[in-house]
């Protein structure tokens, strides 16, 4: 009872604290100079329908490389700290039901394809490399939830991860050589605005980001699973 | 626990033919998914075919659950009939729930009954369980081999045969032809 | 066409409401799940269909079809997983409950093993 | 006329979310709360599509798809955690 009252008091405190924010909220009417440049020149210069994508992949592409590197370090850290520690309790875990197992076996490939769809259409839809990678990883989580004995070929995983990371950097350098700067997407044809093969190298770059993020997150989930059993 | 694992093993050890069928069907499903997701032009279709082939290859070692589908004209016909039966039952079940919820007396007589299914394929049992969950007054709680445990909101039969006849057989006769 | 879409949406929203009402009124978790799963499934299907019909010029019909198929397949699946868990951890059934074959069978199995 | 019907439908769906939310607060066990959360998620997905259609924002539909997927995985994860399967 005391706990419930305490929770209510904390919730009320947050409500009072956040109320002025909601009351005095006025949306920005004008863009800042940097944003204005992106909004006005972005679609023409880079040919990407999703402006956020053109900012993430091209204008601030170097930052994205840093983000992927941070994720890689996180995955490596998880792998390092979750090395086989013998656990005391070996209570048998309850297996999942047949229905969930076969349902997952049917859904998993569809989820993979959906993840690929998201990162391949990063320049047209609100998706992108990171979101697609997370969808792929959620499919993997579902697989591990349905059968604890499910295994993934780690060699393939590492191969995908390293190849996509290396290709990402290689495309960045290609942009430096063939176009104006690192990760410049304009060394490929910009194509027709709004179709799949448009926006130069953006779909390619986002695919590699998506594959890399997906492989890293699947690796993290896989390491946690190994630590559990 | 051990029993379940042995069960899985016998399923995965079945023939290469089944796996091939599963892969082809999965590829078709993936192409269909892609076609529904994207606008129609040549670029998208080629991309969809390539992605579907890659995903189908990548998941080649998984359980070939779709390998149990039967591809005869009769099974297609039964699939169509099944879809209509399913929609009918779904609407009836919703009206049923609505009636029970609105009634101030809350007329329920719940319990968990045991029923038996003749289906052998795993995906067939999954579809059966899902159909049972979405039809009037029933909810699949657990499955042990060929016995399904079903929460029934208003028990009409106490015994296994009667409950099986009431709950399972309206779907089973179609699913048996489609999945075996 | 627009009017038909609007009416279908309205019917769907009524089913959603009844499902939520059932969630509130039913006495135990399995009965709640029955109301919740069935009514929200048909309700959301009707809701989505109605929204799609009212704006037929939108190119998004395929995605809505996928969403509907996804809901039909996964909603009962997650309900089943939850019901199984709820029965396993021994959440009590309502007082009106007549019989429980699953609990009896599990008791028998344990007895056999011991 | 049509717009009024749509507004009524949206209002009823919001009321349904409210009812499910009451069950989520009351729910004596964790499983009850999860059932209520599941229902709330599906109603929210319907409302997202509703908004996408009325505001003519096609891109919201992708968000609804991903939301549905993540919520399904999440609910299965909670169920497996409750029955001590993971």
What does this structure look like?
The complex is a heterotetramer of chains A (about 230), B (about 180), C (about 110) and D (about 90). Chain A is mainly α and about 230 residues long. In chain A, about 70% of the residues lie in helices and about 0% in strands. Chain A is built from 8 helices and no strands. Chain B is mainly alpha-helical and about 180 residues long. Chain B folds into 2 domains: about 1-70, no CATH class; about 75-180, no CATH class. Chain B has helices spanning about 1-10, 15-35, 40-60, 75-100, 120-135, 160-165, 170-180, and strands at about 110-115, 140-145, 145-150. In chain B, strands 1-3-2 form a 3-stranded antiparallel β-sheet. Mean pLDDT of chain B is about 80; it is low at about 1-15. With about 110 residues, chain C is an all-alpha fold. In chain C, about 80% of the residues lie in helices and about 0% in strands. In chain C, helix 1 runs antiparallel to helix 2 (about 30-55) and helix 2 runs antiparallel to helix 3. The longest helix of chain C is centred in the middle third of the chain and has 28 residues, at about 60-90. Chain C is elongated and about 65 Å long. Chain D has about 90 residues and is mostly helical. Chain D has one domain (about 1-80). The longest helix of chain D is centred in the middle third of the chain and has 26 residues, at about 30-55. Chain D is flat. The model of chain D has no long low-confidence stretch (mean pLDDT about 85). The chains are: A mainly alpha (about 230), B mainly alpha (about 180), C mainly alpha (about 110), D mainly alpha (about 90). Chains in contact: A-B, A-C, A-D, B-C, C-D. The interface of A and B includes residues 95, 113, 117, 120 and 197 of A.
């Amino acid at each position: 009872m005391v706990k419930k009252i305490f929770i209510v008091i904390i919730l009320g405190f947050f409500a009072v604290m956040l109320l002025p924010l909601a009351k005095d909220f006025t949306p920005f009417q004008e863009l800042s100079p940097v944003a204005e440049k992106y909004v006005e020149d972005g679609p023409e210069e880079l040919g990407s329908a999703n402006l956020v994508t053109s900012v993430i992949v091209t204008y601030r592409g170097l930052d994205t490389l840093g983000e992927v590197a941070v994720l890689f370090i996180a995955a490596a850290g998880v792998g390092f700290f979750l090395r086989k520690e013998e656990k005391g309790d070996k209570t048998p875990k309850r297996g999942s039901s047949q229905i969930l197992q076969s349902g997952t076996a049917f859904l998993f490939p569809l989820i993979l394809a959906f993840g690929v769809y998201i990162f391949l259409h990063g320049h047209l839809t609100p998706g992108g490399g990171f979101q697609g990678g997370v969808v792929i990883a959620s499919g993997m989580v579902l697989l591990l939830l349905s059968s604890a004995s499910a295994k993934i070929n780690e060699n393939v995983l590492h191969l995908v991860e390293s190849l996509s990371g290396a290709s990402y950097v290689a495309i960045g350098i290609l942009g430096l050589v063939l176009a104006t700067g690192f990760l410049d997407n304009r060394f490929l044809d910009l194509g027709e605005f709004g179709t799949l093969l448009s926006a130069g190298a953006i779909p390619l770059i986002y695919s590699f980001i998506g594959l890399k993020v997906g492989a890293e997150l699947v690796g993290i989930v896989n390491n946690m699973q190994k630590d559990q059993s | 626990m051990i029993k379940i694992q042995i069960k899985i093993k016998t399923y995965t050890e079945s023939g290469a033919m089944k796996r091939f069928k599963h892969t082809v069907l999965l590829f078709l499903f993936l192409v269909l998914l892609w076609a529904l997701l994207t606008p129609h032009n040549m670029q998208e279709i080629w991309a969809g075919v390539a992605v579907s082939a890659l995903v189908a290859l990548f998941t080649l070692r998984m359980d070939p659950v779709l390998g149990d589908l039967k591809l005869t004209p009769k099974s297609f016909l039964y699939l169509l009939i099944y879809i209509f039966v399913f929609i009918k039952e779904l609407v009836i079940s919703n009206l049923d729930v609505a009636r029970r919820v609105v009634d101030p007396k809350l007329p329920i007589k719940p319990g968990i009954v045991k029923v038996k299914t003749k289906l052998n394929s795993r995906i067939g049992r999954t579809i059966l369980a899902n159909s049972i969950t979405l039809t009037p007054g029933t909810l699949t709680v657990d499955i042990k081999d060929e016995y399904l445990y079903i929460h029934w909101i208003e028990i009409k039969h106490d015994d296994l045969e009667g409950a099986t006849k009431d709950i399972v057989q309206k779907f089973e006769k179609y699913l048996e032809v489609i999945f075996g | 066409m627009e009017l038909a879409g609007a009416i279908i949406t309205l019917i769907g929203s009524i089913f959603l409401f009844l499902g939520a009402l059932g969630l509130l009124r039913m006495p135990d978790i399995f009965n709640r799940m029955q109301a919740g799963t069935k009514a929200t499934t048909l309700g959301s299907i009707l809701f989505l269909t109605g929204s799609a019909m009212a704006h037929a010029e939108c190119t998004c019909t395929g995605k809505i079809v996928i969403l509907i198929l996804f809901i039909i397949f996964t909603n009962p699946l997650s309900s089943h997983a939850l019901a199984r868990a709820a029965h396993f951890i021994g959440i009590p059934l309502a007082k009106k409950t007549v019989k429980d074959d699953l609990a009896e069978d599990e008791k028998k199995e344990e007895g056999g093993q011991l | 006329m049509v717009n009024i019907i749509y507004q009524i439908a949206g209002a009823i769906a919001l009321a349904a979310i409210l009812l499910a939310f009451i069950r989520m607060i009351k729910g004596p066990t964790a499983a009850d709360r999860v059932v209520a959360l599941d229902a709330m998620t599906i109603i929210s997905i319907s409302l997202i599509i509703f908004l996408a259609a009325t505001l003519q924002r096609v891109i919201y539909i992708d968000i609804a798809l991903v939301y549905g997927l993540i919520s399904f995985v999440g609910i299965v994860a909670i169920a497996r955690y409750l029955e001590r399967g993971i």
